[in-house]
Amino acid sequence: MISSTATLFGYHPETRLRVTGEDAFGFLQGQFTNDLRQPPGRATYGLWLNQKGKILADSHVLRMGEKEFLMTSAHSPVAVIRQRLEDYIVADDVVLTDETATAQGLLLSGPGSATIVRHLLGEVPAPGRFGRQGEILVYGGQRLPRESFELLGPERVITEIRRQFVAQGAIEAAAAEIEFARISAGIPSVPTDLGPGDLPNEGGLEDSALSYTKGCYLGQEVMARLKNLGQVRRRLHVVRGRGAAPASLAALFQREKKAGELRSVASRGEEFVALAMLSLINFNPDAGLSFVPGGPTVVTADRHG
Fold it and tell me: CA nearest 49: which of 20, 85, 18?
């Protein structure tokens, strides 16, 4: 029996894009925020920025071979990533193959998830690496505060694996549960929480998604300046309240001044939790927030966001 602490969540990835060609590595290395100078078998998380350093999309890049890469993203649309890449392919020998339509994903989480992966692969992939069993790819997840793994493969294969794991005692999680856990932990989703108007550092992604030593990539000069300055003017915070969950993008006020806006929102029972982009200028983390200027406190922000 699989440990009942393991939970499963099936989803359709927004991106599964294969990149091949003689120039595949050099091209992607000059576009991606993280360092792809890794041997085959590596799974690297990073971002796709515009010239101003703002976030267009995120993805994992799996190095399948010396000249073959697979890009996957749970939430960033393949159309955005593909357009971002095509805009900078000039004379490069690079071929993009969209496999999103036939892809399926399974998010495993909880203490029992490693048992599932070991049973499937014979081992648990080390951090930053992916494992493979037939048509299934497995790598460490980062959408939840607990141990998790992402399984990717054709829909028919993932559906059968999901059925087998449930029959052995794994618990299926609802999308609302996954969102509540993610938001409560302050883990941003791209592009809902961080998008074309936001910098990676405003969402705390500078440590996990950026390399400051790899050399040039689109948006790199902005990232270098931010690193030298050491601060941003806005930051994602976890905020909490009770009652009906507010709409995403609802404005937040501290006294009479606008302090920011909500991004992702999830509710559980009588409480809700959200990620909010808040201005750090004159922001008092000990004071509450309201939905109208000078209104009563309805939301409190976690001090460290």
Answer: 85
- Are both 250 and 176 inside the same structural domain? no
Identify the CA nearest to 280 among candidates 254, 249, 255: 254
Q: What is the pTM of this model?
A: 0.94
Tokens of 216: 């040039």
Q: Give the angle subtended at the CA of 147 by the CAs of 174 and 7, to the nearest 5°.
A: 30
Nearest to 227 by CA among 241, 207, 247: 207
User: What's the number of CA atoms in the CB half-sphere (13 Å) around residue 126?
Assistant: 2
User: Residue 158 sits in a domain of what CATH number?
Assistant: 3.30.1360.120
All residues at 6 or more sequence positions from 72 whose CB lies less than 8 Å from its CB, including other chains: 13, 15, 16, 17, 59, 60, 62, 103, 105, 150, 152
Residue 215 within a domain: no
pLDDT digits (tens, 9 = 90+) for 54-64: 999 999 999 99
